[in-house]
Hints:
The chain is mainly β.
Amino acid sequence: ISPPRNGGGGGGRRGPGGDEGASGGSTRKVKLLELATGDETVYEDIGGSGFSDDGRYFMVRKRQVANGADHSGADLIVIDLSTSVAQNIGNVAEYAFNEPVSMLAYSVDADGGTGNGVYLRDFGQGTLRPLDTSGDRYARLTWDEEGTALAVLRGSKPDSMDRRQNVLLAWTAIGGRREQAVVYDPNTDGSFPEGMVLSELAGLRWNEGSTMLFTGVKEQRETPPESDDPQADVDVWHWADVRVQSVQMRQASRDRNFTWAAVVHVDGPRFLRLAEGDIRSVTFTDDGRWGIGRNEKPYEGMITWGGSKADYYRIDTATGEQRLMVENLGRAMGTSPDGNWYLYLKDEHVRVRNIETGVETDLTNLSGIDFVNRQDDHPYELPAYGVAGWSENGRMVLLNHRFDIWALPLQGGEAVNLTGGMGERDQIRFRYVRLDREAETIDISEPMTGSSTPCRPSSSSPITG
């Protein structure tokens, strides 16, 4: 059993924070089978399991003994598959290997807070050491891409308050001579928004270079008083509601867990809130240099099909500055892997904008090619056929046509039909096949693997070439 990357097993950059299948009285087990010998080992009553990315370790996290306990820790069994040696670690809440699978970080959440902390096992050095210990609880244990920086939130709920009062802990250059521990405490920062907390409901994410940590803030509130009064079971509909009552009910969990995007610059450390007011949603370029803010407020209540409209803003993660990029947009197509370009479809034209300079190129006009899927017969703004990828040199975006694949220059120039027009000529749909799932770009100077599907009525199966 191997979990998806960054999922609930420890094979990614963050391990699970709670038990899977821990309710309802059901039990789960996992069987580990050695293919060479047929030997098998069964682990009973588990909460989660998974392999490390390199396949050397298998982790089994047991289910919590007591449901509804004040602590979330449970036994974690780490099996070295090369030696069959198994180690049991007690009261583990979250765990994660770094990218090289040379270190295992885990947090302890024990009954009464005894032994709570973040611990680091270095397999190369054969050492185990605490990075931080406290009676508080730890959440969102997260490695960076290189596996040399680690971050976590630590906090507890003040009396009569409903949210944890978290601080952010980070360690950079772990295992090296320049290892550094960073603590960001909102309580000592006058620029931190009043009445809010760093929330464990939001994930932590490092930028490239491990100089920034993206997180989320949420309004602190008092714990609602307990009452023996009967609870009302009436749903109130109001003509002025932007979302009708049934939609509000369906999205209640999302609303409860909503947080405002923010960033902590490790150098300092320095905090910036990136989402506020009508900008509730922010996505970030891969390098973390820019945020793309989404404001749906001007279009709330409008009847739309095929996706809601919004105004999009460029947000500078170094200063927090917001600048309007595109208004009334319903077909965003994402950012480039290098963080320099923003792609979207508007007025049936595919356009790309340089995020820093604001210079825009109309790729439909440049190429003279229609990238809109006019076979989609729904009564809404038609989508494009989609993005095949971005070139390795950062100069081109690869767009799907109905049949062919085109490489479009981002700063102007000649468009290139990578499939030579064979698709449109012979009515064959060509699509790029990504064999390396971790590759973010495509080297168009090298042979590319693709699939081809005849679009004429035929009894033959699709072919791949």
